[in-house]
Amino acid sequence: xxxxxxxVAVLAVLGTSIFxxxxxxxxxxxxxxxxxxxxxxxxxxxxLVFLVFGRxxxxxxxxxxxxxxxxxxxLWCCRNGIHPxxxxxRERSLRLLDRRPGRS
Length: 104
Hints:
Blueprint: H1 2-19, H2 32-53, H3 55-79, H4 90-98
C-alpha cells in the first residue's frame, strides 16, 4: 500500500509544481487548505481501494482519474478557444476562470 500512496503523492507534487503558474496570481494561498483536503481524500480513497480491491486497482483508479481530468480539460479549453497547455490567450483564460460558480 505504501507504493500506491507514494505514487499518488508524487503525482500530486508534480502536478502542483508544473501547474502552479496558472493559479499563482489568482490568490492561490487561500486555496492551500482546499488542495490539501482534496489530496488527503485522494490518498485515503487510494488506500481504501488497495485494501478492498488490491494493488492493480489502486494504481488504475488514480491513473483513470488523471486521464479523465485531462480529457475534460482539453475539451473545455478547445471549446472556449484557449490553448490547453499554455492557457493562452491569458486574459481570456483568467476571465473564464473568474466566471466559475463560487468565485467572487
